């Protein structure tokens, strides 16, 4: 089962100032590394870099952030191309979600993920064959 990781979960996993969310996100990400089932997109990596550098309660260095992004390249990120952008515009309208969330949904579908691990979407919501799981609402 492939699990697409949204930016917020990835950020919590490295933001030591996030309390219980840090612990839970770190556990979920660790499990995905062990199982080899984690997937993400270039969008997630870009947002992750900016957030852990500037918006986290305890920002990390450029060198550390770069190293983490390089590590996640092993997950073979989905690249959002022109087709993905157009599909996200359609998904935005169809699902009545933000364009950026629609781009996450499209990337998750593109890599045939079963789950989007996210705090930003409604837990249990389905977008086609992809289901949203909020790791802070359930035991993974």
Could you describe the 3D structure shown?
By secondary structure, the protein is of the alpha/beta class. It has one domain: Rossmann fold. It contains six helices and five strands, in the order βααβααααβββ. A five-stranded mixed β-sheet has the order 2-1-3-5-4.
Beta-strand content estimate: 5-15%
Task: Tell me the domain tally.
Answer: 1
**What number is the mean pLDDT?**
94
Structural class: alpha/beta
Order of adjacent strands in the largest pleated sheet? 2-1-3-5-4
Radius of gyration: 14 Å
- Quote the CATH topology: Rossmann fold
Using brief descriptors, characterize the structure shown.
single chain; 140 residues; alpha/beta; Rossmann fold; 5-stranded mixed beta sheet; 6 helices; 5 strands; globular
Helices and strands in order:
Elements lengths: L2 E3 L1 H8 L5 H16 L2 E2 L2 H14 L6 H11 L9 H14 L3 H12 L4 E3 L8 E2 L2 E4 L7
Parallel strand pairs: 1-2, 1-3, 3-5
Antiparallel strand pairs: 4-5
Helix pairs in contact: 1-2, 1-3, 3-4, 5-6
Task: Please outline what is shown here.
The chain has 140 residues and is an alpha/beta fold. It has helices spanning 7-14, 20-35, 42-55, 62-72, 82-95, 99-110; strands spanning 3-5, 38-39, 115-117, 126-127, 130-133. It has one domain (3-133): 5'-nuclease (Rossmann fold), CATH 3.40.50.
């Amino acid at each position: 089962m492939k699990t697409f990781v949204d930016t917020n979960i990835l950020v919590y996993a490295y933001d030591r100032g996030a309390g219980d969310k840090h612990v839970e996100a770190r556990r979920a990400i660790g499990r995905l590394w062990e199982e080899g089932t984690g997937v993400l997109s270039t969008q997630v990596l870009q947002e992750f870099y900016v957030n852990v550098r500037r918006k986290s309660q305890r920002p990390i260095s450029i060198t550390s952030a770069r190293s983490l992004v390089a590590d996640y390249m092993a997950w073979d990120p989905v690249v959002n191309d022109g087709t993905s952008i157009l599909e996200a515009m359609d998904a935005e309208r169809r699902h009545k979600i933000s364009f950026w969330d629609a781009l996450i949904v499209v990337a998750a579908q593109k890599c045939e993920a079963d789950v989007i691990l996210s705090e930003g979407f409604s837990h249990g919501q389905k977008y086609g064959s992809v289901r949203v799981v909020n790791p802070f609402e359930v035991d993974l």
